[in-house]
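Sample pair:
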Amino acid sequence: MKRMPLVAALFASLAIAPAAFAQPAPSPTAQGEYLARAGDCVACHSVPGGKAFAGGLKMGTPVGTITTTNITPDIETGIGIYTLQEFDRAVRSGVARDGHQLYPAMPYPSYAKLTDADVQALYEYFMRAVPPVHQVRQPNSIPVYLSPRWPLAVWNTLFTPSLGFSLDPERDQQWNRGAYLVTGLGHCGACHTPRGWAMQETALDSGNASFLSGANLDDWSAPSLRQNVATGLGAWSQADIVQFLKTGRNQHGSAFGSMRDVINNSTPYLNDEDLTAIAVYLKSLPASAQETAPAYDATTAAALLSGKAEAVGAALYAGNCQSCHRETGAAAPPFVPPLAGNPTVVDKDAASLINVVLNGSGPLVVKGKPDAYRMPQFREQLNDRQIADIVTFIRSGWGNRAAPVAAKEVGDLRKRTDPTSDKVVVLKMR
């Protein structure tokens, strides 16, 4: 079950010259298809094995479950009778055709930044190019006393900005394009920005240092996308970022968790100009914390090579991990990610590392081609104590300087998660 932020449980443009963000699309529907890819709309509005955009994905909350809606142009069960104005209001303001407030699992606080032209292109695509699917939405499973949606209007007043994206006149067009994609349609902050007292994103753009500084979502730690040298993108070049967005892998790591959906259906389909613009924007974000870059220490490798490693978890690592990740912790990137200096490994929040050892990483399907390398799950082979010892060893080896992990942390995550399925949502647009 995919889970959404607690905000759903709590409450359930400036005009920009179109030429500034023109897409290389020959028609409105083609441009809309490109934008739907950029926004990864299919990830939430489809289920593995189902029809694209027909909805049905269950999204858990601490008090219940909602199911996502059918956004195909079916006139009875989808959005086939939506006018452009009604579609716009749903996308950018979070208000459905009949006037009820949408849960902010729909990232309309980010989509509020979309230009009028892009909203119209999306509308043309969904109405003219997406096949209609007659699929009735399953009801939400939220207690009656928490189901009223009027509090969302209050939440929106407090936390949703006015429509529009503001160009930064001190930045060039490339930077502004990257900012538009990251803060708007890409809604990167929905996963990578911490949440506040009402589970709102604490920042929606780079004007606040918490923006994209990392957050825990659905038992994965979405890392910082700022220039943190240990736990963020400080060691990544622009080329590294582009490679990751195109393939899900680079010399520093590989995609897991919800980022798999992004790689399977979104960023590899963007053109090089837009991917570079995203990289330029992300590389401009200063670090959110003072950190020391990891310095490689060969002591761990020497101990493993000697067969006399005595550190907690060393023997378990040698028996279960070393064949792929090597005694050096360098592995074989980009196919097998390194462990030495990996931002996911040294993150203060060990959730992603625990989760991927417990449940595996699942497949990446880049433009329809599944990869041959994926992290297997160890929840059946290893107990909580053993996994905690391995994770602790990895977080302290080869110069990594991260806190140990307790068996209880692994046990709690084991109860809340399931093995990663090989079934994925892979959208065939046409």
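The domain at 299-416 is CATH 1.10.760.10 (Cytochrome Bc1 Complex; Chain D, domain 2).
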